[in-house]
Amino acid sequence: MSTLQLIDLPLAGLQLLHQRSHEDDRGRFTRLFCEGFLADNGAAFSIRQINHSLTRERGTVRGLHFQFPPHAESKLISCLRGCVWDVVVDVRRGSPTFLSWHAELLEEGRATALLIPPGFAHGFQTLTNDAELLYLHSADYAPTHEGGLSVHDARLGIRWPLPILNLSDRDGGHPLLDEHFEGVEV
Questions:
Q1: Which of 34, 39, 115, 122 is placed for a possible disulfide with 44 were both Cys, Cβ 3.0 to 4.6 Å?
Q2: Catalytic residues
């Protein structure tokens, strides 16, 4: 039996990766990533960049970020410590779920990760202090191709579980959507 399992989520292409942990008196071992497993299951993913974040204060929101082609990226997000409410928004031009959002609880010890394909904006809110996330990216960060959505945008209607705290100037400066936003072609 595989130590990994992919589960389709309501937005096409978005998947939850279940990682089975093996525990004994020494502790715990969990396979977080397996390129071969993902490729064999139609979710090919090569790692170009790995990032780690520590967010100190409960209620902090980071995001909602995406990259425009040709630097659009897949992400695999795991929570190493604490708990976050992880949100993705479909920004794929022509998608039947364009501007729809989905959220998953990612939590230390739960052995799940969110597999986000290109064409989705990503962000999260910390539900605990000192939450740590591990991000695997399929593309290098390209600041000239970065996009963002406002976490306050009524058009998205995201229901954040806590009052939003500690929003960076950069994230707070993302514009509200208007009729000119057509999404990204992936």
A1: 39
A2: 65, 135
Q: Does 10 map to a domain?
A: yes
pTM of structure: 0.93
124 touches 63 (CB < 8 A): yes
Number of domains comprising the chain = 1
What's the angle, vertex CA 72, arms to CA 70 and CA 75, rounded to 5? 150
Report pLDDT digits (tens) over 48-59: 999 999 999 999
Task: State the CATH number of the domain containing residue 9.
Answer: 2.60.120.10
Report CA-CA distances (Å) from 181 to 49, 148, 150, 176: 28, 11, 13, 10
Question: For residue 64, is the peptide bond before it cis, meaning its omega torsion is within 30 degrees of 0?
Answer: yes
